[in-house]
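Q: Got one fold?
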Amino acid sequence: MSRLTLVQAVQDALREAMRKDERIILLGEDIGKNGGVFRATDGLFEEFGEHRVIDTPLAESGIIGASVGLAVNGLRPIPEIQFMGFIYPAFEQMISHVARIRMRSQGRYSVPMVVRVPFGGRIRAPELHSESTETFFAHTPGLTVVAPSSPYDAKGLLLAATESEDPVVFLEPMRIYRAFREEVPEGWYTVPLGKAAVVKEGADVTVIAWGTMLRETLDVVSRVEAAQGVSIEVIDLRTLSPWDEDTVFESVVKTGRAVVVHEAVGQLGLGAEIAARISEECILQLEAPVARVSSFDVPTPLFAVEDLHAPTPERITAGIEKVLTF
């Protein structure tokens, strides 16, 4: 066991995957000699060489387009997009090609690629560096979308993604890249895609979160429990599409109340889909309407006020209290 940060766990997973499978290659801006903007690929260029760790031009559509060609011809590329806000030039490639080739070719071709994308905000970065637009990809059939919240899950989910025969969008929460350390097993292990984790059991309300918001939600939950004498269950969604409906529904049937917390804006966010499905499937057990706590429906602001844009502890607390007192 080693105590790793989340970004170190990502690096460890990439190294394990490349040692195991020579078909895996990395592509991205500055990922080679410089080790990536967040140093997620640090040391991999020296170990695997320039033919497997490839520095690309500043052209996201080219990075993804080239990866599609590599994937359908037998390789297993892992392209990196430096920030989620930079993926938009490649959006056409993602939606029109990455997500559709299996269906378009009637199963003759698949696209076994993992698109690594740092996402989220509150890192004091310029515009277009702090996006949480995971719904774009979760809304697109043919893409699996993953968002780990811990070093252990980051390594296990990334290794599982490298085994997938279909494309995975792997969202890495930048704010917690180096926020804490956790024991991570050495060698190969996987965390199953499509399976949520009940990280804390409870009886009075279910709170669902992912990525950066999980740890912040757990901090709020501990304070609410101490103040009000209630028991709160917390679910880490982990895979955003397809998300684990069974685990969520089972929890909500038990607690009768649900709150979804995410850093994306509220308008058509994933929380809206989760709330709708809970309302459809658990209506007879619900004791209160499902609450959503999200960022405000405005573009991500500059860093002077970005902490107020995302869900604050006060707003998460209010969301939980709203369903408890309904």
Remarks:
- The first strand starts at residue 2 and ends at 4.
- The chain has a mean pLDDT of 97.
- The radius of gyration is 20 Å.
